[in-house]
């Protein structure tokens, strides 16, 4: 089963944008992520609609971060990029006449609801500023310039 990596990929992009002087084109972001620029534009549209990024066209245009990093949580970004279902577990064909299936489905549903609530609560506790601070600390520790510590960008 393929995993949905939109959240981690867009967090990656947002942090690079926060530490970059100037816009990134969809093509540059696509190269960074190893994907297509159309996919980037579609995903970035949700971030733009949420007010986290803005875009400009023409020469020198592209995507820019447009938010206070301390005010945006990982949960906010998850929702802005389409907030995929968090878990693939579940039951596909409930049989209302089977008591065993009712008990099994109830146990699975309860566990999934608790796990999802815990994960969403944790995502709501971490801001983009928290991640940026961790990145900055990593750069200091490694002796890197945080603005140039992104070799995979063109």
- How far apart, in Å, are the first and last alpha carbons? 32 Å
**Form type:** elongated
Order of strands, widest sheet? 1-2
CATH superfamily: Winged helix-like DNA-binding domain superfamily/Winged helix DNA-binding domain
- The structure class reads mainly alpha
Write down the CATH class. Answer: Mainly Alpha
CATH architecture: Orthogonal Bundle
**Share of helix among residues?**
40-55%
What is the H-and-E element order? Answer: HHHEEHHH
Number of strands: 2
Please outline the major beta sheet: 2 strands, antiparallel
Verbal overview:
The chain has a single domain, classed as Winged helix-like DNA-binding domain superfamily/Winged helix DNA-binding domain (Arc Repressor Mutant, subunit A, Orthogonal Bundle). The chain is 54% helix and 5% strand. It contains six helices and two strands. It has a two-stranded antiparallel sheet with strand order 1-2. Helix 2 (26-33) packs across helix 3 and helix 4 crosses helix 5 (99-125). The longest helix has 27 residues, at 99-125. The mean pLDDT is 86.
